[in-house]
UniProtKB/TrEMBL annotation:
PROSITE patterns: B302_SPRY (PS50188). Pfam families: PRY, SPRY. Residues 203-394 form the B30.2/SPRY domain. InterPro entries: B30.2/SPRY, B30.2/SPRY_sf, Butyrophylin_SPRY, ConA-like_dom_sf, PRY, SPRY_dom, TRIM/RBCC. This is B box and SPRY domain-containing protein isoform X1. CDD domains: Bbox2_BSPRY, SPRY_BSPRY. The gene is BSPRY. It comes from Callorhinus ursinus. SMART domains: PRY, SPRY.
Length: 394
């Protein structure tokens, strides 16, 4: 290509031809003079651009990068100002609730478990400290990231403001390195390490001691009775509304109703619980196929699908037996339970303050299974039987 001189200019001259470095060789990535770019020059046949065009391109890149840095900084600043303080407050609140629960439970059996109280409170304190330390580490990290981004942006803005075309071109490598450094600072990500881990207060020893103490201190179990409107046509309800008997033949005497289960052999209690501590017991010695637990009132009643089958949906939590297999079921997830013997009675303990559901053997007070979950509404005792009878014990 034919290249003319861009005219006299300030700055260094070509060491070979003594002319102004007014052109840019894209192949060799350096400023050259018109003679270098001409037909007899060393850059003959290379892709040549005017130096001011290359400088303008770099300016545009810097402007774009500065805008990205500004948005990046705003995102991180919002995270530090809004998310981290909330994490800190929630961790403190959760730790406080966990501490209160530990103290309340251990107060019931303090003479038996002073050492357990101390151990668990230390774990709560340690977990709280860990959560606070994680949050502090995050705050320091992202504050440093903000400072680094601000430093990079200030440097780039300084280049954009104070350097002429040639100086800007000569700084291209530094611009690239700073841009790459900025792009290496990623956005904040959600991390479980910033949350208080409530599992730190779960102790089989505490649970067993607490259940034993609670059962010994309660004046009696709840007066749970079956709501006859919900009883499946495959079940027969006793006059006192406490015993369910399975019948393989569907009863024609049951009038259909919106509340009634029409396929699975289920029944709901007439009473629901939404606060406090509640326990009831069921005699299961005559049945080899039953389910006992709790369910939300929204549990569907109609059809043969999983949405109305206990333990196969999000509305029900049940302990079940089929022949010699025992398991806990919820939302289609089934956890096998390794029981050494078949219980003749099954106790249910519902602690709505702690959002905890326990199944135990009344004769020994042995805890058979514990489940922690945030329940979303009032809970009804729920029952199913597909072999002989089960009875609520009063």
């Amino acid at each position: 290509m034919s290249v003319e001189s861009a005219g006299p200019g300030l700055g260094p001259l070509c060491p070979e031809h003594g002319q102004a470095l007014s052109w840019f060789c894209c192949s060799e990535r350096r400023p050259v003079c018109a003679a270098c770019a001409g037909l007899g020059g060393r850059c003959r046949g290379h892709r040549i651009r005017r130096a001011e065009e290359r400088a303008e391109e770099l300016r545009n890149k810097i402007v774009d990068q500065c805008e990205r840095l500004q948005f990046h900084s705003a995102s991180i600043a919002k995270y530090v100002a809004e998310v981290l303080p909330g994490k800190n407050q929630r961790a403190a609140s959760t730790a406080s609730a966990a501490r209160e629960l530990v103290i309340q439970r251990l107060a019931v059996v303090r003479s038996l478990c002073e050492s357990e109280e101390q151990r668990l409170l230390e774990q709560v304190h340690g977990e709280e400290e860990r959560a606070h330390q994680s949050i502090l580490t995050q705050r320091v990290h992202w504050t440093e990231a903000l400072q680094k981004l601000d430093t990079i942006r200030t440097s780039l803005v300084g280049m954009l403001t104070h350097l002429d075309d040639l100086q800007l071109i000569q700084k291209e490598q530094e611009i690239f390195e700073r841009t790459e450094e900025a792009e290496g600072i990623l956005d904040p990500q959600e991390s479980h390490k910033l949350n208080f881990n409530e599992k730190c207060i779960r102790s089989p020893r505490l649970t067993q001691l607490w259940v034993t103490a609670v059962l010994g201190s309660l004046s009696g179990t709840e007066d749970v009775r079956i709501d006859e409107r919900t009883v499946s046509p495959f079940l027969q309800l006793s006059d006192d509304r406490r015993t369910l008997t399975f019948n393989a033949k569907k009863s024609k005497a049951c009038a259909d109703a919106p509340e009634r289960f029409d396929h699975w052999p289920n029944a709901l209690a007439a009473t629901s619980f939404q606060a406090g501590l509640h326990t009831w017991m069921v005699n299961v010695q005559n049945s080899c196929a039953y389910k006992v637990g709790v369910a939300l009132g929204q549990l569907p009643r109609k059809g043969s699908g999983s949405d109305s089958r206990l333990g196969h949906n999000t509305f029900s939590w049940v302990f079940s037996r089929y022949d010699q297999e025992f398991r806990f079921s919820h939302d289609g997830q089934h956890e096998p339970l390794g029981l050494l013997r078949c219980p003749t009675q099954l106790g249910v303990l519902l602690d709505l303050q702690a959002q905890e559901l326990l199944f135990y053997e009344p004769a020994s007070g042995t805890v058979l299974h514990t489940h922690h979950v945030p329940f979303s509404g009032p809970l009804f005792p729920v029952f199913a039987v597909a072999d002989q009878t089960i009875s609520i014990i009063r």
